[in-house]
Fold these 3 entries.
Entry 1:
Amino acid sequence: MPNDPIRRKSPEHKASNSVAVPGNTQREYAAGWADYELLDAGDGKKLERWGDVVTIRPEIQAHFQPGWSWPDWQARADWEFVELSSTQGTWKKLKPQASEHWQIAYQQLQFGLKLTKFKHLGLFPEQQANWRFIAERVKPGDKLLNLFAYTGAASLVARMNGAEVVHVDSVKQMLDWTHDNMVCSGLTDIQWVLEDALKFAKRELKRGNHYDGIIMDPPAWGLGAKGEKWKLENQLADLIETARGLMNPGAFLVLNTYSPKVDLQDLARAAAPCFAKRQLEIKQLWMQSQTGKALFYGNLLRAMA
């Protein structure tokens, strides 16, 4: 399935049937690092620095005034993504020597980036909040399952910290991209699975396999390998229930959602049959720009078995 998330239209959206969200609703902020920075956001766009390359990309959540002027943005940027439809577009080169392929680092990890027609570059930097969480909890020898794994930043963070990683994605190009990132990062022995993530997880459940950590970053919608339709709001409870069955005692689950139809209440409702409130952490994911603009990136569930 294509992992091309649609951003939520409003972080304040609530489900009609209220369910208590464990604890206080919190914002968790991802942090930039030496090779990535959210420079500014506003007027439906975001300005980002990836190593030495600066891009302008559409961002539905940037419904406010930017900190810098549009001429300032264009003077800084190497590339601007121009939307041609709701799902695709093209890149406009703003500097003659702008690179189309380049590499950035996160700690000791290396990620190859490139321009795609879906506006993505090969990394979701807001997931730094989850990379941080994974690094704090993974121990050498732990078994970790990464579903809907895209280009594998979470897989590489877990492997760097000694975990045995099973990396699942239904798109071969994503597995190849992650493999290249693994090799460039000096890592080995990630197990690759080219398959529908939920179907694989259900088979693992039947096989009696268990994990010490499970990461899921499912798309909001898409089509499976055989054309079957996927809508996250219809699969959410099944995803969480299946993941719960795969968890060892003390294991963790990370579920990130970008869907406009899945809010904090929906996460709490879907998780309630599987986890006690004290086992759950449900938050909003944010990142702050250099100019002080706070940008919303979706909702986040973490659970401990």
Note: The radius of gyration is 19 Å.
Entry 2:
Amino acid sequence: MSTEAIRSTLYLEPGLHQALRLKAATAHRSMSEIVNDAVRASLREDEEDLAAFSGRAKEKTMSYEQFLAKLKADGAL
């Protein structure tokens, strides 16, 4: 993987921008480092979600009504 950075323009809400600037200053990190880490974490979470969906792809589906009936039968409702 290349470590060369690519310049990009992001439009942040004013409050988010201020919070990011303060966090960067407090943590002695650049805003870019914090944004890159947040994007990586989000992509890892997506990857985990996709793996979970893939692992459950062959499970039988259940309608909402069936699920409520099951909860009622189990005493959860």
Note: The mean pLDDT is 93.
Entry 3:
Amino acid sequence: MKATKTKFVREYPINASARLLYPYLSTPSGLSQWFCDDVIINEDKVFNFHWDGRNHFAEMTSHRTNRSVRFLFLNEDKSHTSDPSYIDFSIETSELTQEQYLKVLDYSEENDEEELEELWEHLMQKLREIVGG
């Protein structure tokens, strides 16, 4: 039986310019400050996210500078899966209020919505503290 995946989508207001925010979403040094314990990128441009002593390999499959970035997670042998988990970050501005939002799309096997809610709230708190937003 195939595990079904959950698409978790939230928008978090964040008081920081896209230019300031983007490196925290797209670079190993930025991501390791709030998103996970450490991030290493190898010569093949594969990102290795460390959480709780475990490796999670991912490819940055799309990015638009100061706008959005997507990480597609790979198997442990760094190969592609048929229904890969991914994380999508996009920086959006409300036309009405000019407020900045970070839109998170987390597509994964974690299907406990409450747990995801708490996890992302915690991560956003960390990010806001770093960027002063």
Note: The chain is about 25% helix and 40% strand.
